[in-house]
Structures are given as structure tokens and as C-alpha cells.
Amino acid sequence: MKLAQEREILDILRKELAENCIAESRISPDRPVVIINREALLQALRLLVEKFDSRFCTITAVDNGVDFELIYHMSIKGLVINVKTVVPKEESIVASITRIIPGAATAEREICDLFKINFKGLADSRPLIVPNEWRDVKAPLRKPMSGIVAEYQKPTVETLMQQGQVFTMPSSVKAHRQKLKLPEIQTTMARPEALKELHEIAEAVKFDKSVGYDRLKKKLRY
Amino acid sequence: MEFKKEYSMFWGCWVPSRQPSVEAACRSVLSRFGIGIKDMEGVSCCPDPVVTERLQRDMWLALAARNLSIAEKAGTPMATICNGCYETFFEAIETIKTNEDLRRKVETALDRIATTLPKKTELRHIIEILGKDVGVEEIAKLSSKRLSKLNVAVHPGCHLYRSHSREEVQDKPKMFEQIVAATGANLVDYGITRFCCGYPHRVVEEEFSLRMMLARKLQRIWDADADCVVVSCPACNIQFEFGQLELKRKYDIAFGSGIPVIHIVELVALGLGIKPEEFGLSTHRGPTQNIISKLE
User: Fold this and answer.
1) What is the secondary structure of B91-105 as a DSSP string?
2) Contact residues on chain B for A157, CB-CB shorter than 8 A
3) Considering the domain boundaries, does residue A145 fall inside one?
4) A114 and A160 together in one domain
5) What's the ipTM?
6) What is the pLDDT of residues A28-65, one digit of tens each?
7) Inter-chain CB proximity B13 and A153 less than 8 Å
8) Which of A104, A148, B190, B236 could link B231 by a cystine bridge, Cβ 3.0 to 4.6 Å?
9) Residue A180 lies inside a defined structural domain of this protein
10) Domain total in chain A
11) Contact predicate B264/B183, CB 8 Å
């Protein structure tokens, strides 16, 4: 019974959220996790509440260094489904779910206090568990922006992602190469289509994500 | 043109963008011995066996596999003149053979760029090409006597000791010494040949790398009256050259006007009578005059 119910819920989430349903995993055999785009958070929770009469348990916030993970624990007749979304630390903002679930206000206020994540649409955003004077000054569980790349490794990683090689070519070396009649280099530095392949590979193995590389800004996010 | 042997040359990052004299010397030397070079098109960093491999192994392996595939498609074995690149490709070939989980991940990543896993790419370090394909006898035969006054300290570098079995660990470093001897230069024994130059430590703890590693090694080389250091790795080359400048600037440690450092292909080029200006010996950041003044 539980299995059929779980299948039905997951099928509907996949169908309704379409590409906003990014991935699925499991914490334990009977605890599915659906990872969704931040923009689809309200749609996902509304579906669970309105179609399956689900009950909101709580929200877990995790600071991963460059991003926050918010995990919404939803209970449906004994089955608990986790809806997980990622909030980039640079933005630190997500929609409040209090329009659908007014009782989530306490959890959202607590997370706002401890992690300084803003819940857009939260009517009462006064501090809940930290002193008033801490607001905008101190968030006890918020870590500094940081990732797995150590300071000394940053130039290597950034140059690798920017041009596919770990050193740029100074003009003095270009001049020496010309004088020595060395051929033009044929690497990813000079071949945009080859660099694109490197980026495809990085995306396939989730390298940019794990190191926190911003492809548009062409640098690490920290 | 008919070649004795032909290689897809993986130049790496250091040599083309920092040490053009090494590339020029390598092209001249291999051409003299009838070894063909194909420049590999579209290759990336190997990637480096220190930072990228430690950060995310499947990314490191997927990029290495892509580079190996380019050589495989060209239908020639891959050659490298850098110990770091050699380490990466050696390890990548073994990992693809033995680690099923990683192999699958890499296969999936390569699928996205319509590339298949390399299956039989052969890998050669320049030391093996000079020592085996060319042969030390041939180098000795073609070398003039112009290096007979040059005292050389060899620094094989840690990754040159990479081998398939314990018995083969010393093969490439020994071959390195035989090549140096074949050029007519004099090998000096300074006792700590295998001691690391300190390059990998530099990014983490500069003072340790320079004072505890590099300066100790240079002191022994200086005491042994070597005129220069010969390396088979561009990273070691950088550490010896820039490291000496930093030792002088930061810690007031100097060895005369500086000990010159050259790559093995540059030494072979000099032995063959190729003029220093033909391959740009003066483009080194360190002094090279000690070498030039000793040429016969």
C-alpha cells in the first residue's frame, strides 16, 4: 500500500514539475528525496498539500559552504517525503511556504535567525530565537563562503576551467616562440570547441558544482 | 617523410607557455634522430596529478582519458617531456584498466562529447624515447666532444621513478644518467639525487619548500662542483630556477651567480652541436652563461 502510494506521489511530482524535478535519491529504503529547482518549491509543496493532504513536519537547513540545502519534510499518511532545494549563498533567498502552510513560519524564522536566509513573503520576520540586535549582524550557524578548493589551489582550478590549461601564455613567451619559429599551439587555449568539450565533461561529472565554479563569471564563487 | 618512429607529442602546460627553449630543443633533437612528432590538437592540461586529482578523481581521469583518446585516434603512441604529465597518464591508463567504477563514470562523461575510452594508448617519457628508440650509443656516436668540460648534476624528479614493478623503479632514472653520459658531459655525484626539489610543497608552505628542500639540494650540488642541473621535468626546472631567485631575495641564500638548470633535451641538443641560440637557451629565467662558457 505504502509503496503504491509513494509511486503515485513521485509520478505526479515528476510529471507536474517536469524539468524542475532535478534528481531523486533516498535517505533510507522508505524515505524518498526529491531534489527540485528553487523556483518550483511552492508548486511542489502545494501539490503535496492539496493533492495528498500532506502534513508539514519541519525544514532542515544545511550550510554546504557555497550553497544552502533546505530540506522540507512532508508526511503523508505515515510516509515521509523529503523535498530538497538548493539556495545559492550569494542570494540567500527563497520563497516562504507560509502562504500554503502557515505553520511553517516558526521553522522559517528560526532558519532566518541561524543561517540568515531570507524567506520572501514571510509576514512576521522578527527574530525568534536570537536577540534582536543580532539581526543582520550575526547568524550563528552560517559559515563563511567557502568551498573544497583551498586558497593555493584556486589559480590552478580557475585557469583550468577558463582555458583548459593551468598557465596563461605571457607576451614575452609568445615573442620567443615566434623568434624560434615554433608552431602555433593547438590546445584548448586556442580551440574554443575543445574547451567546450572540457566544460561538457566538467558538467557531466559535476566538477563545477562540487568546486563552486561560476561558468558565467569564469571564476570560483569564493 | 619517413620516420624511424612517430609520436603524438603532449607538450603539457609548462613547456609551451614558459619554456619554449625546451620545445625547440626537443623538436630539433628528435628530428635529428629521425623521430617524428605530431602536435596533438585540442588537448587540455593533462590534468595535473596534484591539485586536480586530489580535488575530484573522476574529473581528473575523464580529462586524462580525453587527451589519451586524441593520441589513440591519431594512431600513434603518446610522448611527454614532463614528469607530471607522465604521472597523470601512467596512472590514468592503469586506473581505466583496473577501476571499474571510475571507468564507467568516465565512459559516461566521454559519451557526452562522442568520445570513447582509450583502450590501448602507449605512453613514453622523453627519457624512454632517447634511451630506447634512439639509444644511448647513437647519442654518443653523434655527440661532439663539446660538453667534455661540463660537470652535470642530474635531478630525475620524483615521478620519473613511476614504474609497473618494483624491479623497474630505477630504469628511467638510470637511463637518464646514461643519456647524460652519452652527451659527453661529466656526471657529478652529489649524494641526494632522489631528494625532491620541493616543487609540490611550494604552494602549501613556501619556506619549507625553498629552505628545507631546494636549498639543501642546491647546497650539495654546489659542493659537488656541478656547473648545472639537468632535469627531465619542467616543474622541477621552474622550482630550481625561480626558487634560486626567491632564496636570494627572501632568505639571502645564493650559490655564486646562480646554478643553471636545463632540460635533458637541451643538454642533448648541445651535445649534438646545436647552437644555444638555435633553440633559445638564453630564454631561461636563470643564468645559462656557466654552460655556454664551458662549451668546447
Assistant:
1) HHHHHHHH-HHHHHH
2) 51-52, 55
3) no
4) no
5) 0.92
6) 999 999 999 999 999 999 999 999 999 999 999 999 99
7) no
8) B236
9) yes
10) 2
11) no
